[in-house]
Amino acid sequence: MPHILQLDASARPGFAGKDLHGSHSRNLSQRFVSQWLAQRPQDTTTYRDIGQHPPACISHDWIAASFTPEAQREPWMHETLAESNQLADELIAADILVIGVPLYNFGMPATLKAWIDQIVRPGKTVDIDTSKPEDPYTPLLADRPRHAVILTARGGVGFGPGGELEALNHLEPALITALGFLGITQIHQIAIEGQEHGGEVLANSVAQANAAVDALVQQLQQTPQTARLAETA
């Protein structure tokens, strides 16, 4: 059966419209997962709140351990990579990755960047063959179809594809690049804009994003991939 990995990266712990200074991106990710499970309660989920519980930043020891072949790692190396192994295994197990994330200062929150650094792992999520300098990388998560759903909240307006501020948005492009590097290429993007404007601008954007989330859930549940996973459950 399909398995969902839900990540929330907002520094705001609550939900917009419910909690003071609540998060719009958390609303979107929660809506996606709850709508999915309402139709397919037998499917499974893993939830990780990296906004409130950030992954560790990589260090010199992490790099040394990561680039040492597993059979040659010393005990301290295994300990250093324990969190990375857990995060990478969660991603490997997922059929659908749902990321609720705000746009902070033109890019992703540091917590999400830390997560990316932890899950891009030689020999685990990507193979590196230095004997082929023209094409040394093999994405290991291309072994089966996986979807990534990027649910974004932005303070301003016009940061989406075709918008006048598109060139200033380094969130979705960076995420798409990193996930594609690992083999996740089926990407879906939905965004709320206008949080700083408020009023009708924000309300209309929220309504459009909610409708888009609902439509995406229906679309993905009807894909042949989901049907095959359900048949094998």
Automatic annotation (TrEMBL):
Q: Which cofactor does it need?
A: FMN
- EC number(s) reported in the record: 1.6.5.-, 1.7.1.17
Which positions does UniProt annotate for FMN binding?
A: 10, 23-25
Catalytic function, reaction form: 2 a quinone + NADH + H(+) = 2 a 1,4-benzosemiquinone + NAD(+); N,N-dimethyl-1,4-phenylenediamine + anthranilate + 2 NAD(+) = 2-(4-dimethylaminophenyl)diazenylbenzoate + 2 NADH + 2 H(+)
* A single MF term (Gene Ontology): electron transfer activity
**Per the database entry, which stretches of residues form a coiled coil?**
none
Give the co-factor note.
Binds 1 FMN per subunit.
Q: Does the keyword Oxidoreductase apply?
A: yes
Tell me the Pfam families matching this sequence. Answer: Flavodoxin_2
The residue ranges of the Flavodoxin-like fold domain are 16-215
Q: Which InterPro entries match?
A: Flavodoxin_fold, Flavoprotein-like_sf, FMN-dep_NADH:Q_OxRdtase_AzoR1, NADH:quinone_OxRdtase_FMN_depd
**In UniProt terms, what function does this protein have?**
Quinone reductase that provides resistance to thiol-specific stress caused by electrophilic quinones.
Q: Which HAMAP family match?
A: Azoreductase_type1 (MF_01216)
Its name, as the record gives it, is FMN dependent NADH:quinone oxidoreductase
Organism field: Halopseudomonas pachastrellae
